[in-house]
Every structure is written in structure tokens, then in C-alpha cells.
Design brief:
Pfam families: Ten1_2. It comes from Gossypium armourianum. GO terms for molecular function: single-stranded DNA binding; telomerase inhibitor activity; telomeric DNA binding. The chain is an alpha+beta fold and 90 residues long. The chain has a domain of 62 residues: Nucleic acid-binding proteins (OB fold (Dihydrolipoamide Acetyltransferase, E2P)), CATH 2.40.50. It has one helix and five strands, in the order βββββα. Strand 1 and strand 2 form a beta hairpin. The longest helix is centred in the C-terminal third of the chain and has 23 residues. The radius of gyration is 16 Å and the shape is globular.
């Protein structure tokens, strides 16, 4: 987490050079710390100015996660999905 505003409940998360604003107003039970790693699930809302804000419905702190292993698992998942999407259309 790069930034967090208690007043607006808006967090800014970053990963591999990309940033995303996250509206955490429904997650008041979480303790937000700059520099921590979080996962969020919610709806992505595109504002009139084309800014994306994730309306978080749930979230968790995942400090200590092995990010290299996490990225490898994402790559495997994407390959699996691509293969099965291809098979579903043939």
C-alpha cells in the first residue's frame, strides 16, 4: 500500500509499476499500514474522468506472501484458462 487516507477511506495500492485506488469504506475492521501488502475483492468502477476505483467488498493483509510464487501461480492459472477457453470454442 502506497497511500491511505483515513478521512476518505481511499487507499492507493501499487504492483509492478501500476497503481489503483481502492475505496475501503466497508472495510473498517482492517488495519491499514503503508508498505503492507493487501488483497482486495470488489467492483471496479470507472469514473467520468476515466479513473478506476475499486469498491472493495473484502480485503486482507497478506504481508509475508512469497510474491514470486504468487506471480508464478497467476501465470499458471492464466495458461490453464487460456487453454480451456480455446478448447471450449473448438
Amino acid at each position: 500500500m502506497q497511500e491511505y487516507s483515513v478521512e476518505t477511506a481511499i487507499a492507493v495500492i501499487a504492483d509492478q509499476g501500476a497503481t489503483l485506488k481502492v475505496d475501503t469504506q466497508h472495510l473498517r475492521e482492517l488495519s491499514f499500514r503503508i508498505g503492507s501488502i493487501f488483497q482486495f475483492i470488489g467492483e471496479l468502477n470507472i469514473q467520468p474522468n476515466n479513473e478506476a476505483i475499486l469498491q472493495a467488498r473484502t480485503g486482507r493483509n497478506v504481508d509475508g506472501i512469497d510474491l514470486d510464487l504468487y506471480y508464478q501461480s497467476l501465470q499458471q492459472l492464466r495458461q490453464f484458462q487460456a487453454k480451456h477457453m480455446k478448447n471450449a470454442t473448438t
